[in-house]
Write the structure tokens for this entry.
Amino acid sequence: MKINVADAVRYMGAGEGNEETRRMAEETAAELEKRITPRYTWRVFRTEMRPDGVFLPEAGEILAGNLAKKMLAECDAAVILLCTLGAEFEAMQRALEARDMARAVVLDACGSAWVEAGCDAAEEEIAARFPEKYRTDRFSSGYGDLPLESQGWILRVLNAGRRLGVTETASHLLIPSKSVTAIIGLSDKPQGAKIRGCAYCSLRGNCSYRERGTFCGV
Amino acid sequence: MAFKMPMLLDGAMGTMLQRSGLKPGEIPETKNVTDPDMIRAVYRAYAEAGSQAVYANTFGANRQKLAGTGFTPREVITAAIRTAREEADKTGAMVGLDIGPIGTMLAPLGTMSFEEAYDIFAEMMRIGEEAGADMIAIETMSDLYETKAALLAAKEQTKLPVYVTMSFDATGRTFTGCTPASMSRTLEGLGADAVGVNCSLGPAEMGNIIREIRANTTLPVIAKPNAGLPDPVTGAYGVGPEEFAQDMAALAEAGADILGGCCGTDPDYIRAIREIPRPERHTAMDRGAVCTPSVCRETGKIMVIGERINPTGKKRLQQALLEEDLDFLVDLAVRQMDAGADILDVNVGYPGVDEVSMLPRAVQAIQAAVDLPLQLDTTNPEALEAALRVYNGKAAVNSVNGKEESLATVLPLVKKYGAAVVGLTLDEQGIPATAEGRFAIAERILNRAVAIGIPREDVWIDCLTLTVSAQQEQAAETLKAVRMVTEKLGIPTVLGVSNISFGLPNRMLVTQAFLMSAFEAGLKMPILNPNQQEMMDMVAARKVLNGEDEACRAYVDRFAEAAAETKTAVPAADMTLKDAIRRGLRKEAGRITAAALQSGSGIEIVEQELIPALEQVGAEYEQGRVFLPQLLSAAQAAQEAFGQIKEAMARSGAKSADRGTLIMATVQGDIHDIGKNIVITVLENYGWRVIDLGRDVAPETIVRKAEESGAPLVGLSALMTTTLPAMAETVRQLKAMKKPPRVMVGGAVVTADYAAHIGADDYAKDVRDAVKIAQSVFSCEG
């Protein structure tokens, strides 16, 4: 697992960055990799199409809306994944904010890239476990019409409090904040890209990269 | 029935209920009322398997988790205990009130306050005792702070014995970073009857955790592990009863006394472990410790207690306390930590400061950013208790003395909250002139402490330094007393050393000589200013001579670093403050400013150097030539310069260098506050005083603060779409004030259109915008 430093620089709103920004990001990423390893957990659920979304019988819950239906249209199962940097990242961030806000901003961006790397590692593990299956793109609560409120039951069915110490606030934000839940469909057919790129991004009307005529690369 | 400590506990509840058909997503505790027979069968199975205690199905029966189920904690807990009682009585087993985490994180990680958590636990504890529980089992905890709230509630609200276990992962820490050592030290201090581990891992992975707990407590140690880890596809746990029992026998060897199982275990596992022998153990502690959740400092070696957070004679700190500027205290703490302090003394006593509210706030603010044990320094018992309550970990108390009144008020608090305590060798007659007199008081303090149950290793003695220029013969008496306490009582000594040289030229030399002599007499914990490099050099040297610095490694590193620093930081002699700020060189900015203040005024420096430099960096940022980290580096260098100016103005008696006050807050429901903190870092350098209300701030709080302060500008930040309504509501309430302030809003999801739509005056796209808005507000003002 490695932090994608170029991504981290982009998360800072620094585009390609200048040399100093890249150097700070590299140093911070190295320190972060040394101190914290992303933790993740995942579970497989069967999927059943319903008019109002995709039902997961073992969870007794529904992934509501059209996005889930579209993403999982050709799938017979879905993996729900949770990855977190844990509370120790939070402590590291707070301690750094009190010392050096500039570094703290860099650490925040590196943290986001690190949790993505954790999701990638989990996905590799999933791929190894299901070599015969094709996977959809990862998608999450809050994308498209998949309600953010589903975070609550997702955490519950993953036993997230016990397994990884992740909880949610009343406004459905995850704590620790560098935590991500994602859904990945498993299918017998090859799965094309369905949600990556500007056309699917909820920020497309209000994106500073697009304003400048570039894109973020996610 | 008399309580006899159960040594064999039960296994999983959840696993058993899932097997009996509990549906995913169902709240298991509601079954206590709706399907008591399903729960009863589990109690019976464990009691019959030989469990000496069965835990009632009350793990999540708190009002937060039950909200929306239609059941109250009283209904669910009472039903659970009643059924458990009926089954337990058939075999003579104890009934445990089971208490799990609330499910909402406490601040600073989450948003729940310590007292709110306490209140939720207190309700459960009271109901559990009334319903007839024999004991309380607090388990699966990951946050030491939440665990402390639960244990305090158990101790204050009931008379029941309490078993406490936390959950550790493969790194050997809990999810929030708590170590087994810190857990053990803190919970034993707070009066737990047994401590240990549950859930987490399989027993094979738990040996080191159990050993670390064993080494840090005199209490019986609990091991209640999972049956391995669950498979992500099948959900099945990997370790069967026989293998589990083998591994548990090894844990008993490693130090576990009380055994049971957690997720994935069932009555077969309990049967398999019931005959495991427990070795006889000698559990006396020889070393005391103080700790935070992740840093445990054992006494017995040299440790530096940082003395800087004490307003006596420090104008700038006095001003910060009066203005409730906690960031300044945090900064003092950070600098001492970076300079190598092991423990920080915290004293906020000053006329006009309400210590009872300020000391706990200071403790919480410092603990959020600085991971060092604190020594709570106050003469006000109420402030001491308030601070001990909210301290996360095991604190030290500075101080008790030989006066009857002090012994009677301070020691019970030290005992209740499980702290270490500094005993000053003075009493109603003052400070004895002889070492023997001081030793007698030390002995009296120690005996009184031990008599009420404070372990002797938690008593530290301060033999008191007097100024040598005034009472020359006293230096020798102090040193002699240190030696007597060390040799005859065998407990650690602390000593404030700086006083010794007061009134003499070349004070450092005298202080250093005294420190070296005190070390020779046995001093372990000097209280000093760790920012004085010469003193810390001496400490480093002494650690080498004491054999505490293995292979002289820390000493060598210390001077290798110092050499590297002088090499890289060769500033051009003609470097200007503007250059230093633009290049983000903090030390240089501070040094140049200090020199400039000898001849020029602070205001001039701010207006002619500091702000133009920031403006230039800001302009480059707008052009995309520098980025946020560089902008902030410049701001921090400016902050260093500004700190020097504030310090000088405080010394000269000028009220404050502030050019106006504004309020910043992240709105209710939102916990992401880095954006707000970025803006504050930059704004403060323009000389505006920023009242930082933090994150997740209720509209009412923001309005109240706006009214109190009369600030003409309020900045609000929100990062998530879900919290935008809270921003709208806050703007609405601010605009309904008699004299509404100007309101600027910003944050990842906020747009100019949205800002206009909710009635905000300004939209700040980024930190530069925020500066321009503030400039326009304050130029009109003044």
Summary: Chain B touches chain A through 61 residues (CB under 8 Å). Residues 577-651 of chain B form a domain with the Methyltransferase, Methionine Synthase (B12-binding Domains); Chain A, domain 1 fold (CATH 1.10.1240.10). The first helix of chain B runs from residue 14 to 19.
